[in-house]
What we know:
Elements: E1 4-10, H1 14-25, E2 31-35, H2 58-78, E3 89-93, H3 96-112, E4 117-119, H4 121-127, E5 138-142, H5 150-163, E6 167-170, E7 174-179, E8 185-189, E9 192-201, H6 207-213, E10 221-230, H7 234-241, E11 249-252, E12 257-262, E13 265-270, H8 296-309, H9 311-314, E14 318-328, E15 335-338, E16 345-349, H10 354-361
Parallel strand pairs: 1-2, 1-9, 2-6, 3-11, 9-16
Antiparallel strand pairs: 3-5, 4-5, 7-8, 8-9, 10-13, 10-14, 11-12, 12-13, 15-16
Helix pairs in contact: 1-5, 1-10, 2-3, 2-5, 2-10
The structure holds flavin-adenine dinucleotide.
The site of flavin-adenine dinucleotide has 39 residues, from helix 1, strand 2, strand 10, strand 14 and helix 10.
Amino acid sequence: xxxxxxxxxxxxxxxxxxxxxxxxxxxxxxxxxxxxxxxxxxxxxxxxxxxxxxxxxxxxxxxxxxxxxxxxxxxxxxxxxxxxxxxxxxxxxxxxxxxxxxxxxxxxxxxxxxxxxxxxxxxxxxxxxxxxxxxxxxxxxxxxxxxxxxxxxxxxxxxxxxxxxxxxxxxxxxxxxxxxxxxxxxxxxxxxxxxxxxxxxxxxxxxxxxxxxxxxxxxxxxxxxxxxxxxxxxxxxxxxxxxxxxxxxxxxxxxxxxxxxxxxxxxxxxxxxxxxxxxxxxxxxxxxxxxxxxxxxxxxxxxxxxxxxxxxxxxxxxxxxxxxxxxxxxxxxxxxxxxxxxxxxxxxxxxxxxxxxxxxxx
Length: 362
Ligand SMILES: Cc1cc2nc3c(=O)[nH]c(=O)nc-3n(C[C@H](O)[C@H](O)[C@H](O)COP(=O)(O)OP(=O)(O)OC[C@H]3O[C@@H](n4cnc5c(N)ncnc54)[C@H](O)[C@@H]3O)c2cc1C
């Protein structure tokens, strides 16, 4: 590692990796990314990898669309697989109000060029033969949606950045930062000081700690998010054995969960109301890549709702239960851009849909 670079990116999750990749592609090759533990060791490694294109905002929708397009080209560019599964995404509507919300969204989707279809229960059944559809009004279907392997996407972005001249180092922790009178930053790390023109902070759950190094109070707190993975389900084993395509990601807004196929099983990811914050006084000393203790009790309303929609889910055994922290801002939107009150210091913090947003925000 050198002692001077044009830019230092802090954080080796998917957001830092994409920031570095895009800077390098724009010709900024005297740049470095530093990661205190191992690349992807923050929220990125345990994400479910979904890439929801649905968003009522034009700008966020464009950011997400860019990511989905980029991830499909990364393997050809870098040689690193990203396991892009273009399964499509089904957003169910149990009532007309929900359908009207989707209709309002259609204007946004058409303007930014995201393909979609409004479909009825019979078409939903064709796309998701295991779902009960008798109480549904319809669904919004995104054929280009799907999921990726978050670790592989991050590694591909880092590889692409390095191929364009960037450097990356793991086990380098930023411990403090100070700005010189000539506006250069001195970034102090456990492996020595780096002087640079520009700093970009992409530190996920550590955003508040990083912000405080430069006098910023960033409104970002980690919040627990859980998902469960079932073991093989006989009906799905048979479905796959018969050569059927992977089913679309299923989202039920009225019960607040997503479900997708994972080989011969299913993943259920509930969006819990009032999910607890974690590490409010800072990420605990020594916390690395660990998961948080799972709490199945909290998920019960979502599990019951999912079982009513997809009866084969009800009978499945739970194989894995993931609970990890995600950085959240009060309005759910990330902070991307120059930091207020500072010169040459940029933020890409507070990403709660970071796998989906990384490409575009980079
Ligand atoms: C269970 C779960 C499921 C999820 N599923 C999805 C999903 O399906 N789709 C989706 O879009 N999003 C999903 N997310 C959210 C997604 O994982 C995050 O939004 C995303 O990973 C954030 O990336 P990041 O790079 O900002 O943060 P992180 O991945 O946390 O990376 C930040 C990095 O900065 C490093 N760092 C911090 N401080 C320093 C320092 N001082 N010096 C050096 N390095 C430092 C950390 O070690 C860390 O590696 C999920 C999250 C969880 C927990």
